[in-house]
Amino acid sequence: DAKTTQPTSMDCAEGRAANLPCNHSTISGNEYVYWYRQIHSQGPQYIIHGLKNNETNEMASLIITEDRKSSTLILPHATLRDTAVYYCIVTNYGGATNKLIFGTGTLLAVQP
Amino acid sequence: GAVVSQHPSWVICKSGTSVKIECRSLDFQATTMFWYRQFPKQSLMLMATSNEGSKATYEQGVEKDKFLINHASLTLSTLTVTSAHPEDSSFYICSAYGQGLDGYTFGSGTRLTVV
After folding, report:
1. In the 8-state DSSP scheme, what is residue B27?
2. Measured between alpha carbons, how far is A36 from A17 in angstroms, rounded to an integer?
3. DSSP letter (8 states) at residue A5
4. Which bin fits B109, alpha (ψ -120 to 50), beta or left (φ > 0)?
5. Per DSSP, what are the bridge partners of residue A109?
6. Is B60 on the interface with A (CB under 8 A)?
7. Do A46 and B103 touch (CB under 8 A)?
């Protein structure tokens, strides 16, 4: 699986958009970009995933660069409840061989 | 959406005893389950992968005789920490893969404290 690089921490003001970057320069053609978040002492929560097109759901938007070497997760209107560690993971999806290997993630602190 | 129920949410046990953690997929069939361990202020570390009806595959450095994994049905996987010691105290989390779902679904985690 390709390795990802994320900033250790970020701050965001409540109500503003939070933009979380991720570098995955060694991603291969059939690997997806997944985003999960972990609120303190809970299991990770799926946010969104994409292959090459930009994606949007009720939680967030995912912008993937054309060369697929980096991506940005956008939380459009951050709230205090969005404070969590956000993990960007690159993997094929599905089955025993396609594990989710977690890096260190980005601690997003939403400030009032 | 897909739900994985993990029990217990926390457990305290004496050193030398065994503890069993259960993960159930409530509304989908989990052909594969993954078990993770997380120490304070660290990321999740994959321990093992289990497929229904097969022996689990352990990551390098994880003792298979200490962390027994059973995946006897498509909705249940268990992790048993045998002869637990204080260094086994950690947050254990399961994750399940179900066909057709958007992503892997995680349990809520089990906080194990060995005293």
Report:
1. S
2. 17
3. B
4. left
5. A11
6. no
7. yes
B16: helix, strand or coil: coil
Q: For residue B8, is the peptide bond before it cis, meaning its omega torsion is within 30 degrees of 0?
A: yes
Closest Cβ opposite residue B108 in set A34, A42, A102: A42
Place of tokens 């938007």: A61
| Neighbour count for residue A18 (Cβ, 10 Å) | 24
Residue labelled with tokens 């993960």: B23
pLDDT per position as a tens digit, B13-56:
999 999 999 999 998 998 889 999 999 999 999 999 998 888 89
Q: Select from B57, B104, B111 the Cβ nearest to the Cβ of A100.
A: B104
Indicate yes or no: CB of A100 within 8 angstroms of CB of B6: no
Residues in B touching A34 (Cβ below 8 Å) = 103
B83, amino acid identity: S
Amino acid at B52: E
The arithmetic mean of pLDDT across residues A78-94, rounded, is: 92
Task: List the single residue in B49, B99, B108 with the smallest CB-CB distance to A96.
Answer: B49
Residues B45-86 pLDDT 10s:
999 999 888 889 999 999 999 999 998 899 999 999 999 999
Q: Which residues of A32-49 are buried (b: 16+ CB within 10 A; e: fewer)?
A: bbbbbbbeeeebbebbbb
Residues of B in contact with A43 (CB under 8 A): 4, 6, 93, 95, 106-109
